[in-house]
Amino acid sequence: MKDQLTKALVCEGRVRLYLVRTTDLVQEARDRFDCYPCAAAALGRTLSVGTMMGSMLKSKQEMLTITINGGGPLGTIMVDAYADGSVRGFVSNPHVPTKTREDGHLDVADVVGKEGTLTVTKDLHMAENWTGTVDLQSGEIGDDFAYYFTLSEQTPTAVSVGVLVGPDQNILASGAMIIQMLPDATDTDISICEHVLEGLKPMSTLIQEYDDTNLEELARDMFEGVHILSTEPVSFSCPCSKERMERALATIADADLKAMIEEDHGAEVTCNFCNEHYQFSEAELKAILEHKYDFQA
């Protein structure tokens, strides 16, 4: 099954359900940054939730940025998500040493830390961006997003995330789920959702089990009377390009550009979000220096 996001309504339309498979896009992120297992799991969980949050935006011109820093050795997790199902992101320390818990699972909470915050910034093409920040509760990512939705967006929410990393450090399964109570949800609806969550297998296990089918079937197996709204592809995608990097170089001070030309005879620019490398020759840098104010016009 390809990476996909399914949106549905359950409990006669009073509860919103999001399910996402992100195995391939998390594998791409792992490959781009050579993430060690704990970094891959932490980044993968955030990318997975990010794809679902991106789908909540109202137009394709909008985007949001998730920033998590719990004070742990992983450093900062940063993810950009868009309404079209694309997402990108990175961690400060992709080579954080692997730590495991007593049960053998990756100790994501330890490398993320919980002495910090989760911040969501939404660019809604208004005069100012909207920002919501909450203190981290566990560093496990899923619990922290559930707390964010409930506190910052006033929406009671359950979040389940999972990334299964194989012995060869490749991603075997990755995905996430969001269940949100809408304003007219009843106590019975809450009880039904709690019952579903109590019997739910780990998210990565569910992704593996439904890999030969699709997430719509998973939704129907979880709830009765599911109304599927849409199923759409999701992917790791970055809008960076050599042209954008040219414009970035044009903002550098003349003296620094001259140093790149005269001392380095060229430059390499790397995108933080996707680790793509762009080479600029001495001649290209001279052209940027000569026409830099045209770039800024």
Describe the 3D structure.
With 297 residues, the protein is of the alpha+beta class. The protein is built from 11 helices and 13 strands. It has a 6-stranded mixed β-sheet, with helices on one face. A 5-stranded antiparallel β-sheet has the order 8-9-2-1-10, with helices on both faces. A hairpin with a 4-residue loop joins strand 1 and strand 2. Helix 1 (23-33) packs across helix 2 and helix 9 packs antiparallel against helix 10. The protein is globular, with a radius of gyration of 21 Å. 40% of the residues are buried.
Strand line-up in the sheet with most strands: 7-6-3-4-5-11
Number of strands: 13
Structural class: alpha+beta
Pick out the low-confidence regions. Answer: none
**Shape field:** globular
| Percentage of residues in DSSP E strands | 25-35%
Report the major sheet: 6 strands, mixed
Per-chain topology:
Layout: E1 4-10, E2 15-21, H1 23-33, H2 37-54, E3 63-69, E4 76-82, E5 86-91, H3 108-112, E6 117-123, E7 130-135, H4 142-152, E8 157-165, E9 171-181, H5 187-198, H6 203-209, H7 215-222, E10 227-233, E11 235-236, H8 242-249, H9 254-264, E12 266-270, E13 277-281, H10 282-290, H11 292-295
Parallel strand pairs: 5-11
Antiparallel strand pairs: 1-2, 1-10, 2-9, 3-4, 3-6, 4-5, 6-7, 8-9, 12-13
Helix pairs in contact: 1-2, 9-10
